[in-house]
Amino acid sequence: DAGVTQSPTHLIKTRGQHVTLRCSPISGHKSVSWYQQVLGQGPQFIFQYYEKEERGRGNFPDRFSARQFPNYSSELNVNALLLGDSALYLCAVGSMNTEAFFGQGTRLTVV
Amino acid sequence: GIQVEQSPPDLILQEGANSTLRCNFSDSVNNLQWFHQNPWGQLINLFYIPSGTKQNGRLSATTVATERYSLLYISSSQTTDSGVYFCAVGFGNEKLTFGTGTRLTIIP
């Protein structure tokens, strides 16, 4: 059990469009993190939220934003999509300094 | 930030062989995990091992935190072991920094 579900699993968008990706942790997980994995590389940290507050932000442009809801689910939003935003987007849950568990990811293709 | 290097980048082995994957990191960590990424992109947890040694069936891992490296051992490889193996480390704020992975191919 991954501990987190992501939706949608696949998505195709056109350059310039906006996209929203969703992550739902299993009850009890208050921390959610987002990662981007482009082909051939390891995942790169985008955001971390804990108790609805942003706790960390990676080196990504302001076109990327996120939020966490009272039920601890989270959304990742990307504006003005570029071809280079095509990637697997992963959501992870875990507590401070303990094991992180990843969802199955959303594969975004920008055309 | 912390740098993570994995070696070798690619490994091709015959079924039944043993393998050792290495992860070097540049700074102190209190979180280290090994993952296996399946062809569909799912990161499967193998070990949470910031220090010490753990074993799970044919897999085992050792982290020597003072020397800043971790090893993942796979014995009696099976074709289902094929895929990309990632090491990820973190300290304090829970962000994980991933290595570039080792692509393992097991030939029947």
How would you describe what is shown here?
- The complex is a heterodimer of chains A (111) and B (108).
- Chain A is mainly β.
- The radius of gyration of chain A is 13 Å and the shape is globular.
- In chain A, a hairpin with a 2-residue loop joins strand 5 (44-50) and strand 6.
- In chain A, 0% of the residues lie in helices and 52% in strands.
- In chain A, the strands form two sheets. In chain A, strands 2, 4, 5, 6, 9, 10 and 11 form a seven-stranded mixed sheet that branches.
- Chain B has 108 residues and is mostly beta strands.
- In chain B, 0% of the residues lie in helices and 57% in strands.
- Chain B contains no helices and eleven strands.
- In chain B, strands 2, 4, 5, 9, 10 and 11 form a six-stranded mixed sheet that branches. A five-stranded antiparallel sheet of chain B has the order 1-3-8-7-6, with no helix packed on it.
- In chain B, strand 7 (59-64) and strand 8 (69-74) form a beta hairpin.
- Chain B is globular, with a radius of gyration of 13 Å.
- The chains are: A mainly beta (111), B mainly beta (108).
- Chains A and B meet through strand 4, strand 5, strand 9 and strand 10 of A and strand 4, strand 5, strand 9 and strand 10 of B.
